[in-house]
């Protein structure tokens, strides 16, 4: 199964105004290439990044509504359910499920921890070493006990690696892996595979034809 978050956004090429605000979380059968099911947001949204929880549920950020949705595909009537009220975040993007079951969410201002079992009441701001700004992170991926993050909103694109101390809600072992590489043109998201981090260095969003 491949899970895909899609949206009709103004910055898309050939976007149609009638589709504005439409956003879907879709499940694709990799054997046949067919869409098995699609789940829409209840209002205008922009589903962005997603990750799987250990119990099979899907967590997905909604950059327009400023929230995180959960979907239980094994429920009797699967629907996207808000984990927090709208506007709980500003432009949430990257999301990753940590080994302890908590969710790490990135928005414009920084990183946040959420417990999907508790919901909004569990939201905690993650502190950073020397108050380093880690807002504007596009993609988050887990590398064992560490997290790899792509920051692209402020300054030149860069790639970070760190651990999250969930007890104290803070970033530890922060290391800058890559910056100012000539191929980094608004890098977006990636995934860890066989100990390598594969990511989109240039999504071609800055080229006009």
Walkthrough of the structure:
With 209 residues, the chain is mainly β. The chain is built from no helices and 17 strands. The protein has strands spanning 2-7, 23-28, 35-40, 47-52, 58-62, 67-71, 81-82, 95-97, 103-106, 111-114, 124-125, 137-143, 146-151, 158-165, 170-179, 190-193, 196-199. The chain has a four-stranded antiparallel β-sheet, with no helix packed on it. Strands 8-9-10-11 form a four-stranded antiparallel β-sheet, with no helix packed on it. A hairpin with a 4-residue loop joins strand 5 (58-62) and strand 6 (67-71). It starts with a strand and ends in a 10-residue tail after the last strand. The relative contact order is 0.11.
Task: Please outline the helices and strands.
Layout: E1 2-7, E2 23-28, E3 35-40, E4 47-52, E5 58-62, E6 67-71, E7 81-82, E8 95-97, E9 103-106, E10 111-114, E11 124-125, E12 137-143, E13 146-151, E14 158-165, E15 170-179, E16 190-193, E17 196-199
Antiparallel strand pairs: 1-2, 2-3, 4-5, 5-6, 6-7, 8-9, 9-10, 10-11, 12-13, 13-14, 14-15, 16-17
Could you give a short description of this structure?
With 209 residues, this protein is an all-beta fold. The protein has strands spanning 2-7, 23-28, 35-40, 47-52, 58-62, 67-71, 81-82, 95-97, 103-106, 111-114, 124-125, 137-143, 146-151, 158-165, 170-179, 190-193, 196-199.
Helix content: under 10%
Total helices: the number is 0
Mean of residue pLDDT?
Answer: 92
Helix-strand sequence? EEEEEEEEEEEEEEEEE
Please mark out the parts with pLDDT under 50 across 5 or more consecutive residues, or reply none.
Answer: none
